Structures are given as C-alpha cells and as structure tokens.
C-alpha cells in the first residue's frame, strides 16, 4: 500500500497522489491466463517462457524487486493498482488488510467454495489460516477448526474448533507459527 508519486505515459486511470493497494503478484490483465482470472499465472509479466506468473521479490518470478520497499515500480499499474477512496489515509489500518494475508485467506475460501452452513477444516493456524477462518465465518460457515502441523502438537497444538458466533480469532489460543494450510469443506 502506498501513494503514487509518478506515472508513466501508458497509464490512464491511476494518477499522482492516488493511494493504492497492490497485490504481490504482477499481472497484465489481458493474456490468456489473466482473462480466465488466473492472474497468478500471467504469461506477459514472466520473462521465462517455460513458466508463468510474476511477483515482487520472489525467486524465479521475474526481475522485480521486493514490494516491501520505500519505492516500487508497478508494471501495468492500471490493472494491478486498486485505487482507494478519499478515506484512504484515515482508514489506512483497515485498507492494509486488503494487501496480503487477508485476501490470501479469503481466496482460499473462494477456491474451496465455502457457503453458509459449511463445516471447514484448516490445516495450519498461522496468519493465513486465521484469515481463512475469519473469511469462512464471514461467509456463514457453521463451524470449523484448525489442525496444526505435527511440529506444534507437542507444544499445545492440535485441533481447535469454533462454532459460528462462539469463536473469535485469537493468536494466543492457537498454535503458531504456521502459514502452510489446506482448507477443506464438507
Ligand atoms: Zn497476464
């Protein structure tokens, strides 16, 4: 998340002074994969034709520097930048939740097709797992639980459950750290 200080000649929507949120994946928005919604497998932004997908600061995902920097060049920024409203500065702490962990957890519930009344199991209770659980509850999952990785079971890990409206995300009550997770629903 940041403020735009300069735009290139090909940029039409984003303007200097806009406050924006960016995904860490970099995509073009017009290749075959992007048009199918698979922007994490963009064919344009990855220079190696034997693979797909690009990101800031990831090995083998293109020649792009890390996104957690003071200044960042954003390719295809009309497509990649989510422009925030006039309350961007006032609600910075809320909007920053749109930039990484929360959307990753939410996306997991999208991929799993979570619907109201579902039971959800999440393997791993790191930040992404917690946000997947919160997202499942937002979508109306009736109940669910975390199954921590085996390395944490000897330190109070294991399976912990929630039921709708009777559990709130709390790191203190959960095994950590683990960001590997699998979300399954029934
Ligand atoms: Zn693309």
Explain what you see.
The protein is α+β, with helices and mostly antiparallel strands. The chain has 2 domains: 1-99, Quinone Oxidoreductase, Chain A, domain 1 (Alpha-Beta Complex), CATH 3.90.180; 101-185, no CATH class. The protein is 22% helix and 13% strand. A 4-stranded mixed β-sheet has the order 6-5-4-7, covered by helices on one side. The model is unreliable at 150-157 and 168-181 (pLDDT under 50). The site of zinc ion has 8 residues, from helix 1.
What's a quick, concise take on this entry?
22% of the residues lie in helices and 13% in strands. The chain has helices at residues 32-35, 77-80, 92-95, 101-112, 127-138, 150-153; strands at 2-3, 19-21, 82-83, 119-123, 143-147, 159-163, 183-185. The strands form two sheets. The chain has a four-stranded mixed sheet with strand order 6-5-4-7, with helices on one face. Strands 1-2-3 form a three-stranded antiparallel sheet.
Task: Throw out a few tags for this protein.
single chain; 186 residues; alpha+beta; Quinone Oxidoreductase, Chain A, domain 1; 2 domains; three-stranded antiparallel beta sheet; 7 strands; binds zinc ion
Topology:
Layout: E1 2-3, E2 19-21, H1 32-35, H2 77-80, E3 82-83, H3 92-95, H4 101-112, E4 119-123, H5 127-138, E5 143-147, H6 150-153, E6 159-163, E7 183-185
Parallel strand pairs: 4-5
Antiparallel strand pairs: 1-2, 2-3, 4-7, 5-6
Helix pairs in contact: 4-5
The structure holds zinc ion.
Zinc ion (ZN) binds next to helix 1.
